[in-house]
Write a structure and sequence with these properties.
alpha/beta, 12 helices, 9 strands
């Protein structure tokens, strides 16, 4: 056995001389350079042309995201309750890909209903178990709620684990030249088309609700491990920003989305490169996205539609300050930012937007 001191290549003396940078720092510099170049190319364009260019450029990174205009849908069963009706359907978003969907409609209000399409990694079960009061509040105000399980989420998830070993579906998509985010966006846009073509839904009042059921890490948490390492005494939680990310992307490509509300989303993909520890899942990664834009520019392109963002986290799943949120997303009259839950609640904000004439 040789002592550790003889086996070390990067001794304190050598480190002081060469000052090596972490890989995350090198990647951050590269991302900043490519983002700056992409932004400068769009800077002189009008808002409409800039938005269209953003759509086309992101599409190249996302893969096949085109929805079916008239998807094949089957009603599996319907049930009537005292205050709402529940319809279970299966919707074919791609050949061989069938998505289970719950549509919950108010019992007493007249049709056509405004509706909120709710998206999250936990799927419909996550919303029903984690957000029942918010759903009940929307129904009481005459707003329908659509809960789908996009591919690989909810009951379609192949594993209850969310660690590196459960990312085979995301890895397969990358090997085939696509992204799992793009495939799920295709699902979400197809379901959006299904909703807007229903006679009982008001196509001009379809809102998006992106959520996360993962608790953030404490602001003062000292990161000392990565996924796959032996767990420390304090659990480190992974962010689940899929719902917010898909809601923003769906609104980018679907002009008829009336409002967007997100909780627990990622503040920026650049924030993932600000530290050597990364606590977001592989299945929300879009390779090369920072060659096109970051989340702030995508959100900015959604105006003048109202956008609500709360409890936004960074790449280590820590809630960011309002100052950081404003720096990343800017300020405009249609954008509401806050770093915690408050008044109005997310459900109340959605209700206000959906019931606005």
């Amino acid at each position: 056995m040789r002592p550790e001191s003889e086996l070390r290549c990067l001794t304190p003396a050598i480190a002081a001389e060469y000052k090596p940078e972490p890989v995350s720092s090198l990647a951050r510099k590269l991302a900043d350079e490519r983002l700056s170049e992409a932004r400068s190319k769009r800077e002189s364009l009008t808002a409409k042309v800039r938005k269209e260019a953003l759509r086309e450029d992101l599409k190249e990174k996302l893969g096949d995201i085109e929805p079916l205009d008239l998807p094949l849908a089957h009603t599996l069963w319907t049930r009537k309750y005292s205050k709402f009706n529940l319809e279970a359907s299966s919707i074919e978003t791609e050949k061989g890909i069938t998505i289970p969907v719950f549509l919950i409609t108010p019992e007493k209000n007249s049709q056509p209903y405004p509706v909120v399409l709710a998206l999250a990694e936990g799927g419909k079960e996550g919303f029903l178990s984690e957000r029942p009061n918010q759903i009940a509040s929307l129904l009481e105000k005459g707003i329908a709620v659509c809960l789908p399980d996009l591919r690989g989420t909810g009951e379609l998830s192949s594993s209850a684990s969310r660690g590196p070993g459960a990312m085979s579906l995301a890895a397969n998509e990358l090997m085939l030249g696509g992204t799992l985010v793009g495939s799920r966006l295709k699902d979400a846009r197809t379901i959006f088309n299904w909703l807007k073509n229903r006679p009982d839904i008001d196509s001009n009042r379809i809102a998006l609700w992106g959520d996360s059921f993962s608790e953030p890490n404490a602001p003062d948490f000292n990161f000392d491990q990565s996924p796959g390492q032996k767990p420390g005494p304090v659990p480190q939680r992974q962010a689940e920003p899929l719902g917010a990310f898909l809601s923003v992307l769906t609104a980018l490509y679907e002009n008829q989305v009336s409002a967007i509300a997100c909780s627990g989303g990622l503040v920026s993909f650049v924030s993932v490169l600000e530290n050597r520890f990364c606590h977001i899942p592989q299945d929300v990664i879009v390779p090369g996205i920072l060659e096109i834009a970051d989340l702030g520019e995508i959100v900015e392109s959604l105006v003048p539609r109202p956008v609500f963002l709360e409890k936004i986290v960074d790449g280590r799943n820590k809630i960011v300050t309002p100052e950081i949120m404003e720096k990343k997303y800017g300020a405009n009259s249609g954008l509401t930012l806050r770093n915690e839950s408050g008044d109005p609640s997310l459900a109340d904000w959605i209700s206000t937007q959906c019931l606005r004439k």
